[in-house]
Amino acid sequence: MTVEVKELRVLCPLCKKEAKIEVPIFLVNEAQDGVLKVSIPRGACCDEHSFMVYIDKKFRVRGYQNADIEFRNGPTISITKKAIDAKKEGGLKDFRIQDITSLLGMDISSLILRTILVEKPVFLLENFDLYNRVDKTVAFLSDMESDDLQITSQKFQQDDLKNLKRNKKINAFMVAPLYKAITRSPFREETNTRFESNLLNETMEIPDRDGQIIFLRKELIKITRVIEEFVKMLKDVDKMYEEDIPGITQKKFNYKLDSKNIDVIREVIAFKHDATLASKIINKSLDKIRTDLW
Known about the structure:
Elements: E1 5-11, E2 18-24, H1 25-29, E3 35-40, E4 51-56, E5 61-66, H2 81-89, H3 97-104, H4 106-117, E6 122-125, H5 133-144, E7 153-156, H6 161-166, E8 173-176, E9 181-184, H7 194-204, H8 209-234, E10 240-241, H9 245-253, H10 263-273, H11 275-278, E11 281-282, H12 284-293
């Protein structure tokens, strides 16, 4: 089976280096809202940056989005015959988070963690998966599950795309791993996944698969519980300053949250719980300006 593709020129939004990519026509045709999101990993266009490119149904580049955070450790896996044979023969025990980020890219991998946090399903297109990487990714995510962390992940085929696209009830995150493309997403384009990207980088420092799974499960459960407590707190206040959130998480929950990562709390609350509650989290300086104007 061959796939008809169209060649497009992309431009790194930071350093302006150009590259050509091949985009499958069927993915663009079946993309949600007529826009396909393709993750360009570091090294594919330029050596320094990863980014997302948005392609419309006329195969025009509609825009770009920079990665929230770059890899500390390069995601590229050497594609030698020895490496391919090892991947083909290797079992689940050798399939780690580095393999997932190499397969999907950092942006998509981060969005998968966000999908888990908001309790939506993750669908992975299985086409041309010669080395069972989709199966292994689904197995990795399934092994992260526990009584306190529910994860729905499954694979789908190219023929399923039309039916899944028509079914508006399936508010899933759908990815074509071979092309590092998002065919359907429940999230806004400007979703900030810096928290999840940091979490992936920390996970990559753990050498074994089981340790990575335990760490990711623990951290996702922890931030979920913190977010649920913020939902309760926000119901009893008129506003909450975002600058105060790291101090609250440290003092009240003994949880260290980088001030640059507080968007995960606001965005998950808005998506999963109540957008009105999330809107109570505001910037202190902007609030002072508004108050002074009044």
